Description:
- By secondary structure, the chain is mainly alpha-helical.
- It has helices at residues 2-42, 51-73, 81-84, 88-120, 137-159, 163-172, and strands at 124-125, 130-131.
- Helices cover 77% and strands 2% of the residues.
- The radius of gyration is 20 Å and the shape is elongated.
Amino acid sequence: MRRFMRAIRPALGVLSRTSLYIAGTGMVAMTLIVGWQVFARYVLNDSPSWSEPLALHLMAWFIMLGAAVGVRESVHLGLDVIRHVMKPSVQLAMDLTSLGLIVIFGASMAYYGLLLCVGTWTASIPVLGWPGGVDFFPLIVGGLMIALFAAERLIDLVLGVDVAADVVAQEMA
């Protein structure tokens, strides 16, 4: 299993970095779209109808991709005060429980997002001309990535792998 994790870690790293760049690009695009909407409304007196739904769609993408990257890099907010005063064995149990719940949460989000996508596919987003189910793509992709990245951390924790040392060893090779 250690060999498998070492083999897929570079691909997961690329997926994480790519997601972060896509999220950043989406945030910039959303800012430009909203800026255009404000300019068009107050200067041209002709607000584009497509700008708000497209900005919201982009926002869903960058939130979900960013959340997935946050799971992989373990940068989400947490209350670690109680965890840090516990014995190492209790800390390990808390970490395993937390990561297991995150895997379940991400998989559930993807599953129920897929059900919502299928259920609303025949509806239409009139302004954009997209099927209604497209709105749930970020939920599906983000949920899968959250589950994948949490599973990666969970497996590393079970194996007792020091990820930082593992990454440095791969870069040296």
